[in-house]
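[Automated response] Your request has been received and processed.

Submitted sequence:
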Amino acid sequence: MTDTTMSKDENLVLGVDPGTAITGYGLVWGEGDNLRLVDYGAITTSSDESLPQRLQEIYRQLTTLIQERQPAAAAVEKLFFSRNVRTALSVGQARGVALLAMANAEIAIHEYTPLEVKQAVVGYGRATKEQVQEMVKMLLGLDSVPQPDDAADAIAVAICHIHSARMKGLIKSSKPKAQSSNAEET
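Generated structure:
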């Protein structure tokens, strides 16, 4: 039985790479420059099942994962236009189910374009999939690239959020505080 009274870990981010056949996930803990891979894997569904059954399975497993691990935030890639409309629609449906699971758990949801993920992880927005995966391995001090690829991609999205949130925090803390003016002072 899962303890749902457990508090959220403010430094734990769930990254999700949605797909109808395979939805990758990665849980990354991050504070400052320190990153640690907590868990990763893939939710797979059978093509023998109907689309609603497959989406329901993705939702169930993501909901369970969120309840068990209690991430404070979740990150998912924004959809980009694909040449294959059927694939884009399928990914969009799986993405919608993932967003619903996150929203129902009341965790902060952040979305990033593939270019933003590559920029945050590799430092180059046009990096190849292999370069992103190799940087995931290096940043987390792993012996090999996490498998399947969908899980590695999900981990990259989580790392992107951790880096982006850190940069936003640095920018926010470096801005001078606006001083309140009192028009009545003379």
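Summary generated for your ticket: The CA atoms of residues 122 and 135 lie 6 Å apart. The beta strands are 9-17, 22-31, 34-44, 71-77, 108-112.
If you did not submit this request, please reply to this message.
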